[in-house]
Amino acid sequence: MTFSSVHYVMKAERVLKEQGFKVCLIPTPREISSDCGISLEILEERVDIIKRFLKKNNLLPEGQFKKG
Fold first, then answer.
1. Which CA distances in Å does 44 have to 5, 23, 35, 51, 67?
2. What is the pLDDT of residue 16?
3. What share of the chain is helix, strand, coil (3-state, %, to 5)?
4. What structural domains does the chain harbor?
5. Which pLDDT tens digit goes with each residue over 9-36?
6. Separation CA 20–CA 51 (nearest Å)
7. What per-residue confidence (pLDDT) applies to 45?
8. 28 closest CA partner among 68, 46, 1, 50
9. Cα distance between residue 42 and residue 23, in whole Å
């Protein structure tokens, strides 16, 4: 997941980890975005629940991309 700033991606990581979600910060591939250099990597099977949780916390990502 990509966010508009490093601040938002780090806040999303913190609140998700506090709730027990397995997440990881990774460098954003240049072909995806050059705005924010960090993205949030999550398990594919948890995308929907994580998006709902982020929405409740006003931390919706700008984009969502699948590896591979």
1. 22, 11, 23, 11, 10
2. 96
3. 40, 20, 45
4. 6-56 (3.30.70)
5. 999 999 999 999 999 999 988 777 656 7
6. 14
7. 93
8. 1
9. 5
Tokens of 41: 């990597």
Distance CA 67, CA 46 (A): 15
CB 39 within 8 A of CB 4: no
Task: Provide the token pair at 33.
Answer: 């975005």
Among candidate residues 65, 5, 62, 3, the one with its CA nearest the CA of residue 31:
65
Joined together, the tokens standing for residue 67 give 């590896």
Do residues 39 and 67 touch, judged by C-beta distance below 8 A?
A: no
Q: Residue 16 has which token pair?
A: 């998700």
